[in-house]
Amino acid sequence: MDILWAPWRMAYFEDPFPVEGCLFCWAPRQEDSPTNLVVYRGQRAYAMLNRYPYTSAHLMIVPYAHVDTPLHLDDATLLEIMRLTQQAMQVLEELYHPQGFNVGFNIGKAAGAGIREHIHLHVVPRWLGDTNFMTTLAQARVLPEALEVTFEKVRRAWHRRFPPAGPKAGGADMTKQAVVSEQAPRAIGPYSQAVKVGPWVFCSGQLGMDPETGQLVEGGIEAETRQALTNLKHVLAAAGAGLEHVVKVTVYLRDIRDFAAMNTVYAEFFQEPYPARAAVQVAALPKGAAVEIEAVAYVGEG
Ligand SMILES: [Zn+2]
Questions:
Q1: Rounded to an integer, what distance in angstroms lies between the CA atom of residue 78 and that of residue 254?
Q2: How far is the CA of 58 from the centre of ligand 1 (A)?
Q3: What string of pLDDT tens digits covers the 302 residues of the chain?
Q4: How many CB atoms lie within 10 A of CB 217?
Q5: CA dist., res. 123 & res. 141, Å (int)
Q6: Which residues are catalytic?
Q7: Where are the alpha helices (DSSP H) in the chain?
Q8: Whole-structure pTM over 0.70, yes or no?
Q9: On the CB side of 11, how many CA atoms lie within 13 Å of its CA?
C-alpha cells in the first residue's frame, strides 16, 4: 500500500484559510490570481488549486452552488464537474506528465473533508515515488514548484486548450448590467429600465408614457397598453432581446374592468407560445396611469 505522507496539512486545520464565510463561495467572487487560486471558470463549476496540496498542481473542481453533498446537484452541474475533471487531467498531463490521478470527493467529517459545507472534487496528479517529493526535515515543506508558478502555468494551459465561451454563470462573471434605451421613458429614480444578468432580462414596469413628452398618452386603456408595450419592446431591444423572448409578464390595472380592452391590444404584441402572465387590479398607479406592465425575458446563452 502506498501512503502519501503530508504532515504540513496539519497547518490547514490549525490555521484555517483567512476568509470570512465559505472559501468556495468567496473564491469565485474575487479576480483570478494567486490569491483566490481559481484557474478556470465554467458555467456551473470552476477549478482552483489547493493551497495546501498533497502534491504539486493538486486541483479541485467546485460547483458555484453551496451544497454539502452531490445529491443536491442538478444533472447539468454534475456533467460539468466531470467535464472540468477531464480537462484538468489533460492540462496536468501536458504540463506535469503524471503517471496516475486520484480523483474524488471527501463527503462528511468521517471521510476527512476539510471544508464539509461546500463540496469539491479533488484531482490529484500522482507519480511513482511522489512521496519522496518533500522532506519532513526541520518541518520544512518542499514542493518542486511554487504555488504562484503552478497557478500561472495551469491557468494559461487550460485557457489555451479550452477557450471559455459565452456568459459565465456564478461567481464574479454573473455580472449585473443596467439596460438603457433612449426610445423608452428614462428611469426617474433609483431603478434601471431593465437589468440583464447572464441570459436573463428583468424589465421594470412600463406605463403608457410617451418618452418624448414624459406624459401619459391620450386615449385610455387601449392607447396606454399599446404605448407601455412599445416602451417595453424598446427596452428589450436595448438588451439584445425582443418580445418573443419574454417568458413572464405582470399587468397592473387601475380597474380590472379594463381587462378585456387591455387583452385585445396585448394580443397584437405577442405570438404563441405566449409568455406566462398575471393581471391584477391595484389601488393606484404612478401618474394616474390606467395600466403598468413589467416583464422577464430569457435570451439564451451567448
Ligand atoms: Zn460555499
A1: 47
A2: 20
A3: 445 555 555 444 444 456 778 999 999 989 999 999 999 999 999 999 998 887 889 999 999 999 999 998 889 999 999 999 999 999 999 999 999 999 999 998 888 888 889 999 999 999 887 765 554 443 444 556 788 999 999 999 999 999 886 554 444 446 788 888 888 999 888 999 999 888 899 999 999 999 999 999 999 999 999 999 999 999 998 888 899 999 999 999 999 999 999 999 999 999 999 999 999 999 999 999 999 999 999 987 54
A4: 19
A5: 21
A6: 120
A7: 9-14, 23-26, 75-96, 147-161, 220-238, 259-269
A8: no
A9: 12
Contact 42, 168 (CB under 8 A): yes
Ligand 1 centroid from CA 62, angstroms: 9
Name the amino acid, one letter, at 35: T
CA-based torsion, 278, 284, 286, 287: positive or negative: positive
| Residue in the block written with cell 451567448 | 302
Expressed in angstroms and rounded, the spacing between residue 120 Cα and the centre of ligand 1 is 10
Residues with CB under 5 A from ligand 1 (ion): 22, 24-25, 66, 118
- Decide: residue 71, CB within 10 A, 0-12 exposed, 13-18 middle, 19+ buried: exposed
The DSSP bridge partners found for residue 293 are 206, 251
Distance CA 108, CA 158 (A): 30
* CA atoms of 40 and 147, how far apart (whole Å): 16
Query: Could you tell me the distance, in angstroms and rounded to a whole number, from the CA of residue 25 to the centre of ligand 1?
Result: 4
Domains defined along the chain, listed by start? 9-166 (3.30.428.10), 175-298 (3.30.1330.40)
